[in-house]
Design goal:
14% strand, 2 domains, alpha+beta, 32% helix, four-stranded mixed β-sheet, Immunoglobulin-like, four-stranded antiparallel β-sheet, Cu-Rt/internalin_Ig-like
Length: 544
């Protein structure tokens, strides 16, 4: 009989497959015992970050898998402790973090569990520390603070003025590029500085002689109007853009606003001041305002190019910063415009009117929520809005309303930007991180410009002074430099400019002075031509 034997079974034993450790997951996050997603702001300088996972951790993997870095990429040393059976790691920086600085805590998939599993998805925690609320400078009286801000801001135009022409450089990195409109603001700043004895009247006169001589004898002009930018050494055009390489009537008006104020200030009977006034009159009378109607239209045009003629084709219509263009065009001794150009051109037959209310304030003129605040600064460095009316608005009401809407918007802070408050407000054109924009409630990118609130001091003195004190005392270590306040900042990013712009520094100096003494308003409004011209186009004011 045949039989089977176990010794004849040749089947090999089966080897079990290797066991792969299961992955594990992020479970929860708390920073200073608060859960707020993955982004935390206004933190103290010793935050406690608790990150929980679905499995106990392999502690030896933590130091290589969890990185704590500043926004600049610098590693932050930290201590790690554990709780909840090692499922939660507690991260504490070994030393205090910097104020107003962004940090990240990054957990890579290299993090291991006690069972040698891998973290399924990486985790990033964004942290931003709070402002240091201590004063950066000793407290001084309000008057002493205003003196300090004016004196320091004047240095941009006085010490940093172009050595050949005396004109204002466009910005602190502009080399030989000077700005026409910003130089008009700078002239007014120099007058205020002389009046306050920050510089002597004699020195101010010498600087004005240099500026006016350069403008008269070297600077290129087109039908009496100046380009936006000039070479401060040669007087040649520095093109603003390809086709913007000729006359800029708005920049010319800002320059004339300053020159006419200087003419009224230097009123002495001596030869030097008499000659200065005559030279300013030559420049003033040379501007062919009516030629910029482009073939006698009832509107003024912003640009003209010797190469491209009227190609830019930009009409000057309100409401914006250019009211002074029409005021001066109507005031010209030689090339005046009639009232119909103001009514049809600037006022657009009444279309500049608004009348709606925003944030509890009715706005007489302009775009929704007012636009950037420089609309209420540039023309009103010289034009006194107090008691000023015409067929379209009360300009005292307009300037205050626009400013309060901007202030109230920042206090309401509908975009929840870090730092916006009654202490920290003001949206206008300024530098932003890696760019430039005209900030406003309709274009709010989280950037505050000190010039916005400070240059509004004649309209909102309490609100503006509150902001000025915040910028100086609380942010002074980051925002105060050789020429006063840097251009702009964001507490949301955070980011701080290291730039100065003539068109932002000038209004700070001039509008503080108008708030304190009305000096530039009084000078500009004392011009006989301005009195007549503004009346001719329908303005009424005790100052006309």
């Amino acid at each position: 009989m045949a039989s089977c034997s176990k010794s004849n079974d040749t089947t090999a034993p089966v080897t079990p497959p290797p066991v792969t450790p299961s992955s594990f997951n992020f479970d929860a996050l708390r920073v200073n015992n608060v859960n707020s997603g993955f982004t935390y702001v206004n933190l103290n300088t010793a935050p406690v970050i608790k990150i929980s996972f679905s499995e106990a951790l392999n502690k030896t993997s933590v130091s290589s898998a969890i990185a704590f870095k500043s926004n600049s990429g610098t590693n932050v040393t930290y201590a790690a402790t554990y709780e909840d059976g090692d499922k939660t790691v507690i991260i504490k920086p070994s030393a205090a973090l910097q104020y107003l600085t962004k940090y990240t805590v990054s957990v890579s998939t290299g993090l291991k569990s006690a069972k040698d599993g891998s973290l399924q998805s990486a985790v990033t925690v964004n942290l931003t520390t709070a402002i240091d609320s201590t004063d950066k400078f000793p407290q001084i009286s309000d008057n002493a603070l205003l003196d300090l801000v004016q004196r320091q801001t004047l240095k941009y135009f006085w010490e940093f003025g172009h050595p050949v022409s005396g004109l204002a450089r466009e910005r602190n990195t502009s080399g030989d590029v000077v700005t026409t409109g910003g130089s008009g603001f700078g002239i007014m700043a120099i007058i205020a500085g002389s009046s306050r004895n920050f510089i002597t009247r004699a020195d101010a006169l010498v600087r004005m002689q240099k500026i006016v001589g350069f403008l008269k004898d070297k600077a290129v002009k087109f039908h009496g109007a100046f380009p936006h930018w000039l070479n401060g050494a040669t007087g040649a055009v520095q093109p603003f853009s390809e086709k913007d390489n000729g006359a800029d009537l708005v920049e010319t008006a800002f320059l004339m606003e300053g020159l006419l104020s200087a003419r009224q200030y230097f009123n002495g009977a001596n030869t030097a001041e008499t000659t200065l006034r005559a030279d300013i009159n030559t420049l003033w009378d040379g501007v062919e305002w009516d030629w910029f109607r482009q073939n006698n239209q009832n509107v003024l045009y912003w640009h003209w190019s010797p190469n491209y003629n009227w190609d830019i084709n930009m009409q000057i219509r309100g409401w914006n910063e250019a009211l002074v263009v029409y005021a001066l065009a109507a005031s010209s001794n030689t090339h005046a415009i009639p009232k119909t150009v103001y009514d049809n051109g600037w006022a657009n037959n009444g279309a500049i009117k608004n009348g709606a209310s925003y944030y509890g304030v009715q706005l007489p003129l302009g775009e929704e929520r007012g636009g950037p605040l420089f609309f209420e600064h540039y023309s009103f460095l010289g034009i006194n809005p107090n008691g000023l009316t015409d067929a379209y608005a009360n300009y005292e009401t307009q300037t205050k309303a626009h400013t309060l809407i901007n202030h109230n918007y920042c206090v309401a802070n509908p975009k929840n930007y870090t730092g916006y408050s009654a202490d920290c407000w003001g949206l206008t054109a300024s530098d932003i991180n890696n760019g430039y924009t005209a900030s406003s409630p309709a274009n709010d990118v989280g950037v505050i410009a000190p010039t916005a609130a400070i240059s509004s001091m004649p309209y909102t003195p309490a609100e503006s002074m509150k902001a000025l004190k915040f910028f100086y005392y609380k942010l002074g270590d980051k925002m105060w430099g050789d020429y006063g306040f840097y251009d702009a900042f964001s507490l949301n990013e955070p980011w701080f400019a290291n730039s100065y712009l003539a068109i932002d520094q000038g209004p700070i100096m001039v509008m503080i002075e108008n708030y304190r003494s009305g000096l530039l308003w009084n000078l500009f409004m004392s011009c006989p031509e301005v009195k007549k011209g503004m009346k001719d186009i329908g303005f009424s004011s005790p100052n006309l």
